Amino acid sequence: MEERAPAAKELHKEEALALLAKRYFTSHSPASLSDFVWWSGLPVREARQAIGAIDSELNKDKFASQELFIHQQWDKKFRNKNVLHFIPPFDEYLISYKDRTAVMDKEHHPKAFNNFGIFYPVILYNGRIVGNWKKVEKKGGITFDTSFFVECPDLDKELLEKAADRYKAFYKF
């Protein structure tokens, strides 16, 4: 057991909270206090304490009257045009945020997840959730059915094909 699961360094509560906040905001920026509470399960008081412990590492911004925290390691130089992905159910892109209106209109939420915690496969296009996808197995191989709940006039069909190819390659279909 020692070889497979070596003893972990014991952390004091303050260190553990700081580490949790750092890991969350490094991988989920930008995010709000309520997003962090939602994801971590911490009480609001402890979540604030955790954020305060890494305050010097966070930039703050406002979006739709909500304060967002952005970790300084977050790279703003990512490509955000002509990016399309087939996002599987329960992906962190949606599940780790309490308020998902930054990436999709509230009226479309039932198409991406239900009130019982079930998430559906969605299409991410230029940072927004724009539709659903479904894998279809046929004799000739795997194909994908897509449906869109918002109009994407600039969507190139080649982007859909590339997303399907990446998905197939990942799962080795």
For this entry, give a set of tags.
single chain; 173 residues; 4-stranded antiparallel β-sheet; two-stranded antiparallel ribbon; 6 helices
Give the neighbour order of strands across the main sheet.
Answer: 3-4-5-6
Biggest sheet overview: 4 strands, antiparallel
Unreliable runs: none
Strand content: 15-25%
Radius of gyration: 19 Å
Written as H for each helix and E for each strand, in order along the chain, the element string is HHHEEEHHEEEH
User: Can you give the mean pLDDT?
Assistant: 89
Number of E strands: 6
**From the helix content, strand content and strand pairing, which structural class follows?**
alpha+beta
N-to-C CA distance: 36 Å
- Principal-axis shape equals globular
> So how many helices?
6
Oligomer: single chain
Account of the protein in words:
This protein is of the alpha+beta class and 173 residues long. Helix content is 33%, strand content 23%. The protein contains six helices and six strands. The chain has helices at residues 13-28, 33-40, 44-53, 92-95, 109-112, 157-171, and strands at residues 58-63, 66-71, 84-87, 122-125, 128-138, 141-148. The chain has a four-stranded antiparallel beta sheet with strand order 3-4-5-6, covered by helices on one side. A two-stranded antiparallel sheet has the order 1-2. The radius of gyration is 19 Å and the shape is globular. The two termini are 36 Å apart. The model has no long low-confidence stretch (mean pLDDT 89).
